[in-house]
């Protein structure tokens, strides 16, 4: 059975100029131990589709799907209280902006211990012990001292490590990483990706890696969903996608990789992308 199963997900926002469809009939599955990349340029509905799956969108979003299940359980029909028990525990998410995702008013130690208290009900001593273990696991030096730091006292890379520690605190079955390295320095990006891949392998988690970067896809994914303007353009295992892309949009994304580009300026996606058949467009 798939961990997360999404069929024909549609997300519409009520806006001043009428309804806007940010996600338009997307389907995908993620299995245990599998890394699925969702790739597409900014605004293609990658974050919104995952936030919809997790039930984290604001009330202005209208979410419908033919199927939206976690471990076979219907997420859309279950009571909000049930869903909250799953989100943050069995499904965890890492966001693009590590510093903004942490609460500036509390120490990072308080923030990780809060997750351990709410979801696992650990007492104070057990929480502290587990928090130190988690900080060690994500490569934060002097973990016991670091628990007393506020987010602004840490670098972006260290904050992202804290976010990752919080996300894996309850041993989630599925981890959704939403552009987890985009806000970080290039030298730190590789370290964070390596860390995520190591944690994924150690724990056998399902991992959804959201990215606009084909290099990240190549480095991490087993399978890839290519999204454009709220639709799924293509889905393939990673080798097939790179060797034999079906859609012009995927070819354009690949051509925009620095290795493939010619001349001294990288082409933009809109220059490379002509037109395409949208998968499921007949719907
Ligand atoms: N709360 C919101 N209200 C209205 N539109 C939104 C909201 N959140 C996102 N959108 C729009 O939905 C589209 C998809 O956004 P998003 O999923 O964040 O793209 P990305 O692929 O970059 O993650 C964008 O056009 C964005 O402006
Ligand atoms: Mg996004």
UniProtKB/TrEMBL annotation:
Keyword set, alphabetical order? ATP-binding, Cell membrane, Membrane, Nucleotide-binding, Transport
Q: Its Gene Ontology biological processes?
A: transmembrane transport
InterPro entries documented for this protein:
AAA+_ATPase, ABC_Ni/Peptide_Import, ABC_transporter-like_ATP-bd, ABC_transporter-like_CS, P-loop_NTPase
Q: Where in the cell is it found?
A: Cell inner membrane
Top-down, what is the taxonomic lineage of the species of origin? Bacteria, Pseudomonadati, Pseudomonadota, Alphaproteobacteria, Hyphomicrobiales
By sequence similarity, the record places it as follows: Belongs to the ABC transporter superfamily.
Keyword Cell membrane included in the entry's annotation: yes
Domain named ABC transporter: which ranges? 4-254
Q: By what name is this protein known?
A: Dipeptide transport system ATP-binding protein
Give the bilayer topology. Answer: Peripheral membrane protein
A UniProt-annotated Pfam family:
ABC_tran
UniProt source species: Aminobacter aganoensis
Which GO cellular component terms, listed alphabetically, does the Swiss-Prot or TrEMBL entry include? Answer: plasma membrane
Single GO molecular function: ATP binding
